[in-house]
Amino acid sequence: MFERIASAFAAVAGLAAMSIAPAHGQASDRVVTDHANSVLELTMDGIAPGGSVDLVLRQKLQDGWHVYWRNPGDSGLPLELSWELPSGFTTGETIYPAPHRIPVGPFVNYGHEGEPAFITTLTAPADVRPGDEVRIALSASWLICEETCVPEDGAFEIVAPIVDDPRPVPAVIAHARKTRDEAPAPWSGSLAVHAEPDGPALVLRSDDGVQLREPFHFFADAEGLTEPAAPQTAARTSDEAEVLRLEGGVAYKPEALRELTGTLAIGEGAARRDYRIVAARADGAAPAAASATPSSAAASGSSASSSFPPGEASGGSADMGVGGIAALLAFAFVGGAILNAMPCVFPIIFVKAASLVSSAHDTALVRRQGVVYAAGVVATFVALGGALLALRAGGEQLGWGFHLQSPALVAMSAALLFGVGLNLAGVFEVGSSLQNVGGGLAGRRGDAGAFFTGALAVFVAAPCVGPFLSAPLGAAAFLPPVVGLLIFVAIALGLAAPYVAISFSPALARRLPRPGPWMSTFKQAMSFPVFAASAYFIWVLSQQVGGEGLAIALLGLVALAFAAWLVGLGQRAGDERSGRRMSIAAAVIAFVAVAPIFTLAPSPSADGALAAKGGYGELTPVAFDPSAIASARAEGGVFVDFTAAWCVVCQFNKRTILARPAVRDLFRSHDVTLMAADWTRRDPAITTALEAFGANGVPLYVYYPPTGAPQVLPLPLSFRDIESAIENAQARTVAARRP
Amino acid sequence: MIIRAAALSLALFATGPVAAQPAIGAPAPAFEGVTSAGATITLTDLAGKTVVLEWTNDGCPFVQKHYGSGNMQAAMDAVTGADGVWISVISSTPGSQGHVDGPTADALNEERGAAPTYVVLDPEGTIGRAYAAKTTPHMFVIDADGVLRYDGAIDDRPSPALDSLEGAQNYVLAAFGAVSAGADVDPARTKPYGCSVKYGS
Question: Least packed by Cβ within 10 Å: which of A77, A409, A659, A729?
Fold first, then answer.
């Protein structure tokens, strides 16, 4: 059976080989073995005296089979190359494609699948004569495995002319491109390795803000130095370094360790970035992992993490898990609290301010409403977060902000805020009649309002969730659901905290002015920020549904205003029966007005691109296309703006930073392509791309340099960071291209 | 900084189980195994003798190098001739390369002129995982007190090529000799080479 498959493959491969005539002078004959089809090619059509050219050994492996990286991992063998060169010619070290982890039972191999290309640079002596021909011969052997392993080998020969001015062969350069593109970028920053009893501990400091974001893996160059299948744990020290603890393999001897070299891969798929690691030995134990949080987490178990004993990775990691989660929860809480300072939440602050002044002198009531408000925030955040986690578990490609991708929910948010605005403006009252302002609120009926305000706070805050909460939200999406929900609870508590604190402050009651007729004027004034927030959601909606959908929503708001006015009329009538009748009529009208909102669907013609394409000043972005990045970055790199119309932070950054003439000049002078990944509406491709960078929402800014790994720009975004990312990366590229 | 904290806590969830390598100088993992003849043997039963464990898979090119050349058979004879015990262990899961029943295992050895003391069938991979046997061949030497003295490759030539045997240093015979002479084993641990052991999931 196996033999039959193998021979069928060989026959197919043979046919393929025959149909592609080898290009004379640049390629060897194809070598067809049972599981691979291999060829040796030159990237130039000749060799210049004293010049260099790349020899590319390209293999097309049978599906499901793999060959090995220079360190094959737990089993397997690396490629073996034996060159036969004319006198004076030399070859450099072979460049392998990026290694991949290939699990084999309980063990792990490092290798390549598909079509790996191995690159070796050949240098000619200066004294060869143009017009002559030289013969380059290679005998290569490799172990190729699926579940079973087969040693294979091949002899390759190229006869190449010596010419003064060799020209590149684009097809061969294209074959080698993947290996070149995947080549690890130099590490900018400091590196050191400590010889711990159980294995090397790599201490990394990055100048570029590179972080050990899961998934990551360190591929050691040397066989047996580390255990490929062992867990690799990362921890932060108190002084901003990261410590990567590796388990030593059979060849690891702490006393003999001089340096550690290898490839550090961070991320996976298209977003994987590889770094070349060359770390000299530093004496002493690796710095202990510190609490990953500022002092705010001190109460929540950081002692467990700071006592992490060196060399006891497995025992220590459980402690770090608790400490790490505590840290994450602390950040979530702080991020939630900071949300209150974002413009999105201002309307809620005004609503709360209006409610505070009307009840400020009843301390118990204020406290009670503070707690109920917090409950509303937590319940809504957990409900939204739970829905997100559940939908993700069901296989949906969603991220935080997903509800804002639904036009119906955006329209609902606009309508709710509009209604709240009408209420503040005095068009109608909630839970009480106009005659007894305060009296009605004193009862339990005020609870519903407070809870509702909490729920509303979550909805209006959502567009401003960004720079401070991207890490906790990203983590929430990838951690176990219980932890994910805890993170949502922490954010919610943070969001509610300032108001709860104010509610419990005894100084407050003393400071607020005494109640009086001025209160209703104050409430009315507070309606305008809330109307403004409603207007913002309507603008977002217009990006999603286009003109017709917008008309439906606006007519809905008019009907809603009419309904509210009817309710107010009834309340003012002072007659219970007619009041009730008015309310029923209003409910019917409101329902008829709001129902069509749920039919709103993203309109293809709406071209949400308006939000994405406009606002960049003189720059015109191209639409996000993951497959186009590879070709587009070749020039001067690609800058991707992951954005959404409903993301206030994104819009702010775009208009205040990306639209600057300085950014335009920077992009133009460096040939940088601007790509806009517009997440206003659902887009699984963008969700996937975000996840590859460990993010689960926008904003996110990524620069793909011409070669090497993409870089995530730090938030809050600054022009200086964009400038240095582009200039540094291009300086490196130029340096790398220099022979 | 926030992101680092997230990465750090994420990293902790990405670690899978991994077989721990048995320690040199410590008691070798105890095992009970069924031989190709259907008998049950335990490591404890073999106390007083130096025991060599060899992980094998007759379909693996690296194993074939050592049997095709007679190198493995010669090593077996050297060990068993000096009152040592040689156990070939087959941990291939049913349906995978190298998995055989008792009679087939014996027939294979007869065909290639190999005479291990026992062939132990370990289709569940229990013994293999206890020793963290990674490759075929992967060799272990256990002294008369049941202490693990060598863990690693059969020799210093990680290659499937026959001609690689020329001048190879056989680590197993060196370890067996050192153990018999009461000397230290050096090297006591090397990186095994070969095909992966075909464990089931």
Answer: A659
